[in-house]
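Forwarding these from the shared drive since the link keeps breaking.
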Amino acid sequence: MDDSNRGATRESRRMNSEYTFKIVVGGAGGVGKTTLLHRFLYNVFKTDTSLTVGVTFKTKEVTRNGQKITLALWDLGGQERFRFLQPTFCQGARAGIIFFDMSRFGTMEQVKDWVDMFRKHAYPAIPIILGGAKLDLVDPEMLDDVTEYAKETVEKLGLTGFVPTSSKRGENVEEIITTVVDMLVAQAASAKEVVVPTSAP
């Protein structure tokens, strides 16, 4: 299939979808966000994922409660040298996921910067989920402390929630995406139900 046919197929899928949502995914470099997205997209744990250069973009069609939904997943590179590019890619996003490495506590320090950027360049009320990556590498003795700190961060920054994940084990990989999708579908459905009153004659 040539590129034009592929493009036509993608466009056809979008037209047949009930909703199309852009979701931005951020976090410090090397936390595992690209590996998680690869697992979600292809159900394969890829051990040799390289650092994202700038941004990568993937789409996937999912079905939730009988509705076809197209997801536009924007994986933003976590290295500082790419940060100046990121605001442009946040525009139009309906939700965000920010990952930190649960086995490297220091990666939590960048979470607030990502939250601020999403809210400034997407829109202030954008729903954001905090994702904990590499759950399988966490020292069991540290798990409760890491989880508690993540939940405190969610409350402090006004995030939507916290989901610990393991790309290696496939744990909560689909769940963290579908949590966002279900929330966005509910918001979109609610907006459709709003009746705009007509002006009085």
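-- next protein --
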Amino acid sequence: MAKEEAKQKIESGIRTTVRRMDEKDKLSLDDRRKRALGRIQERTRRPRGRRSRDEDELDVRLVSIRRVSKVKAGGKRLRLSVMVVIGDKKGNIGVAIGKGKDVRSAQEKAVNKAKKNMIKVLLKGQTIPHEVTIKYKAAKVMLKPAVPGTGVIAGGAVRAVVEASGIKDILSKVLGTKNTIPNVYATFNALKSLKLTRFKDEN
């Protein structure tokens, strides 16, 4: 039935389009019908295949922009390094760094790279299941579960990762360096290290 209705709509559209065509047009009736059919199909055509993550409205957060240079034979080559955090606020997050001539190209590279390295964060309601402390290079980050209504108690680097993952109640503390990049990776590794076995203590 759906195919018949679609076919009827296309045929009615063809007739309407043909009537509106200029009578002085020297094209034959068959050629005019083919042209009208092509126009209708172009308007109704939809892309096939699976939807991309961009269509699923990923939360993209730009947390760091740096100006980097590379010395070559002709002189210094200046580029931009961008760090992004992406997440669907349902437990899936990714972190990556991209480089490019401008912020837009660097951000696109970082987002594509982060999509390939996304992880699933173990959540307990709107918080994490247990306390965790992770050290990454000079950064050291501590995350603690919180009762509902607490909110996200975190700084800029930690907050970007936590909110992108969908956590709404959490306590955190940055114990090491204040640099954004190592703190983001430390938070990412902390969420990645959460384990399900801690649930057994509460049952």
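Residues 2-20 form the longest helix (19 residues). DSSP finds five helices and eight strands in the chain.

- D.
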